[in-house]
Amino acid sequence: MDLGIKGKTAIVCAASKGLGRGCAEALAEAGVNLVINARTEGPLIESAQEIATKYGVSVTSIACDITTAEGQALVLAACPNPDILVNNAGGPPPGMWSDWDREDFIKALDANMLTPIALMKAVLPSMMGKGWGRIVNITSQSVKSPIPVLGLSNAARAGLTGYVGGTSRQVAPSGVTINNLQPGIHATDRAVSLDKGVSDAQGITMDEAATQRMATIPARRYGTPTEFGATCAFLCSQHAGFIVGQNILLDGGAVNTTM
Known about the structure:
The chain is an alpha/beta fold and 259 residues long. It has 8 helices and 7 strands; from the N terminus they run βαβαβαβαβαβαααβ.
C-alpha cells in the first residue's frame, strides 16, 4: 500500500532503538525524511546512517534529552515545521505506591506528559497552517488497564491521553490528526528491564520471567518494533485522516476489554 507520505518530514523521538526505531524505519520505508533523537550519540548516529542507507531518505540525528527544554529546542531548530511528529520517551521505573514522592511524579510528568504536550504545541500551528499533519504519541496499555507496579507511568500517560482527547478534536478541522498508540510488552529494552525486576523479585531466571509474562498474553509472545512501526506509519498516512483522538492497543490481546 502506498501511504502517500513520500517526501514529507517527520520528527521521531527516542528513535535509536526499540519502538521509536521501529517507527522511524517504517516511515523511512514510506519515503519520509527524518529528524531523530536519542540521548546517546553513538547508537543514534549509527541508527541514522543505517536507516538513510537502507531507505534512501535524509536522516538528521540530534543527540539530546528530549524531556528537557534544551533538548526540545535542538530538535525543533533542526525541524521547526514537520509534517509528522512521533512522541516517545522511556517510561519511569517500576515500584510500589509507597516508593514514590512528589519529585518522582514530577519527573514522570515531565517525561511522559509535559514533553509531548510541549512538542505538540510547538508544531501544531504550522501543521494547521498547511492543512495537514499527523501526530502519534506512544503511550502504554496501562492507560486502559493500569499496571500496579507502573503507577508513575499510569498517571503521566493517562494525563497525556486526556489532553489529546480534547486537543485532537480542536485541530481535526484543519486536517491534523492526533492519536495514541498503546503498546503492551514488546521485545525492547523496556521488556528486559521489567523481566529483570520479576527475575530479581522472584529469584527466577530472565527466561523464566519472560515465559511467565508471555503466558499472560493471548498471542503468547512479545510484540516486535517492526509491527509496531508499521501501525504508526499507517496512522501517519494519507489513509488515516478520519482517525481522530483514538487510543489503539498493540498488546497481543493482553487487555481484556470490549472498548
